[in-house]
């Protein structure tokens, strides 16, 4: 059906040009056949099922690589793209803490925030990968012909809410494991005892969850772009067929 539509469109276009070009019907038939056969090659010969399978394969590869990068030691902490800073809503507490000689505690707190994200990424990756399973045919072709991060944007749009619900308990366990509050509580307590300051108590679970997920999506977008633009990143035959036209 896809090839038939392409062929018909080609014929209609050629008919509109024929009068000006002075072509006869045989010329039009030959040119239409050539256009039809060219369109039927490469991606045009893929079935809908192959396109969807290829996109899921690309997302799976990208998600696995992203999770691997994020979950290693310093995966967040030493990566400027996804580094998790001191909570912005507690920035004044950071400044005051550093001024009163608690810079070491501040640095350790920031380091443990990133360690929690790295720890969570180890356990959350399978949850994230399970979300790749649902994709319609229409979604697939829109993604295939979309921007360099179209698949990542689709995945973010469809899965952010359920991923947060599942990801947050993992982050909470990770926060307990790396003892973030051991570094945060002294900073917050000293700041909150100061006169005329607005008390701070950021939701560290939510903060690390949001930043960790954003970081994963950024890394996945990088992997998607590689697959679209770099033939060497298309590590399977299906990926080479689906993305070969980009």
Structure description:
- With 246 residues, the protein is mostly helical.
- The chain folds into two domains: 1-40; 48-243, no CATH class.
- The protein is built from ten helices and no strands.
- It has helices spanning 2-21, 25-39, 48-71, 91-99, 103-130, 137-144, 150-178, 180-192, 204-229, 237-243.
- Helix 4 (91-99) runs antiparallel to helix 5 (103-130).
- It is elongated, with a radius of gyration of 26 Å.
- Residues 1-29 and 31-43 have low confidence and may be disordered.
The largest sheet, given as strand count, sense and whether it forms a barrel, is: none
As a percent range, the share of strand residues is under 5%
Q: State Rg.
A: 26 Å
Q: What's the number of helices?
A: 10
What is the helical fraction, as a range of percent?
A: over 70%
Unreliable stretches? 1-29, 31-43
SSE order, one letter for each helix or strand: HHHHHHHHHH
- Would you tell me the overall average pLDDT? 78
Span of the ends, CA to CA: 23 Å
**DSSP strand count:** 0
What would you call the shape? elongated
**Tally of discrete structural domains:** 2
Helix and strand composition category: mainly alpha
